[in-house]
Task: structure prediction
Amino acid sequence: MITPSHYDLVVAGATPGGIACAVRAAREGLRVLLVSHGTHLGGMFSSGLNVEDTLYLGNRAPLYTEFREGIKRHYRETYGEDSEQYQTCADGRLTFEPKVAEAVLTQMVTAEASLDVLRGYVPIAVERSERLVRSVTIVPLEGEGTATRGETRVAAHVFVDATYEADLAALAGVPYRIGRESRAEFNEQHAGKIFTTHVPGHFPREAHDGRLKLLTFRLTGGEICAGSTGEGDRAVQAFNYRVCLSRDPANAVPPTKPASYRREDFLGLIADHRETVHKPYPLKAQLILDDIEDFRMGRGSTPNAKQSWNQPTIPGGGHGWAEGDWKARAAIARRHWDHAMGLLWFLQNDPEVPAHVREDARRWGLAKDEFADNGHVPYELFVREARRIVGRATFTEHDGTLGSGLERAPIHEDAVAITEWPMDSHECTLERRYGSLYDGKFLLSEATRPGQIPYRCLLPQDVDNVLVPVCLSCTHVGWGTIRLEPVWMHVGEVAGYAAALSLRRGELLGTLSPDRLQWHVANRRVMLSFVNEFDMAADAPWVPAVQYLGTKGFFPSYDARPLDPLDSITAIHWARSACDVLQGQGNAGERARHLLRALRAPVPSPGEPTTVWQFRELLAGELRYRDQDVATLQRRAPVGLTDDAALTRGDACRLVVALIAPHAGT
Result:
């Protein structure tokens, strides 16, 4: 049972993003209810996704860092810092066992006294009054659709939909998209029906060359093949279970042949892939065999001799998921599990499978100590794409690639989080063209750059007290760089801060000042804008200022260079930009492009380093020119800066935000 029936915040969905939102809001003093459709918390992190899907290893948001440190602490304290388990976990991108991820996330939730958790419940109705949601009605999942459902009505000031399906938002009447936009709708090159190829290498090249502080990806998209019409449809990318396998004989359960097993579904695996590339086999033969080779070589391992198997997808198999009820979803999930177990059984036992492949495959079984209360079936199907809300802004392919006239992705003045994973999509249908991958599969490792997620993407168009940090407003192509748990934990934590700030100030989420929210979270070490030189664990006093100004057009590239001297050209443009922001003139992209053009123009030299006094005079002169109050600049001068000292770019940012950032009440 839940008490009370009225909360400050109700969060639907115990995904990592939902947990980050609920925990942050609780720590900010809110009374929070977290509603989970399952009895286990943690979404895909607890259901077989054994790696943090990110190319950025820096600290981006406090609760995601707390999760990462909790994982590492478990392996360090349980096995020792020199152990194979700890080294496997912490060497590069974090890897972990599902049960460990669940334990860490659950502990984060249960540690908060003002956070209630309701497990095994789903929303079925929403009470809405004009632009406000007043309450949500929830029922036990096993009672959904029955006459005696045990309904519970919960009222709240603020609601957050952190489900993988945007179920609460849909019930509230929020418009949404399912599937692929056409190429013409947002002028996206990779939208709609598309056939592509893959090219091996290290991408993006800027990261490989050391100019971008990201890990690299070993594949990128090649040519766009004939037949790529760009036509939109409702097809979503393929789902699958992330099957947790073990190669420890004492901890491996052999798969059982499903009752629905049909040998002919899998015979395509034994054909030569190059000769059958144009045939619509339901399986990706070469990729599956590559997985077996990876398993044999120990690549992509999880601590304690486990692997997360990612290949048994069913292109088109999840097309009814988003708008289906939970009974329909259960049938879709069952089909995907039977498919995965049928494939594994086939690889281990069918006489047509080459002997060496059977031998390698037989080394693996279901991990006995994972999902033991669920027949070793992960608690969640990997729902890669369902609904996406239509918000007050839409994140598109353009927002994850280099912006026009910039050396970075487009800048958003209300940005609250970053993206960095390559925009990609798994297969949407089984259709192929000669030499191509399946329809809809693309991977933009070379083209993708770290992007900024606007606060408006979390806001439904016509509801003012709901945020959607998971199924936020974006296109199918843009979704590829958003649909990662590190991003969702980052955005979810921002949503928790926003909920607390709106209630503290007595303002609706839909009318809350994005500037105030940005300054609030930047001071609490939440990243707003990707930079190469530092992450959010840095304790320098200029960190929040650099982050805040990264959304205002002060950096036309990913190089903030906070410790470099402030040159005279940049000083002039920053003074002008500061007053533009103060007066609400221009936009961030225009400011950044103007500065980049000025820095590229031929000049004798950038001039001597600017002193604190000189930059303050530039700011004051610009204020006087625009008939603005100069006294504000003096009242808000940062401490520790002497007039005759040479000014670094980081400290110059402190001077700027002293003038323009919304300090009151934060």
User: Anything to note?
Assistant: Residues 272-283 have pLDDT under 50 and may be disordered. The domain at 6-177+462-475+481-490 is CATH 3.50.50.60 (FAD/NAD(P)-binding domain). DSSP finds 19 helices and 19 strands in the chain. The first helix runs from residue 16 to 27.
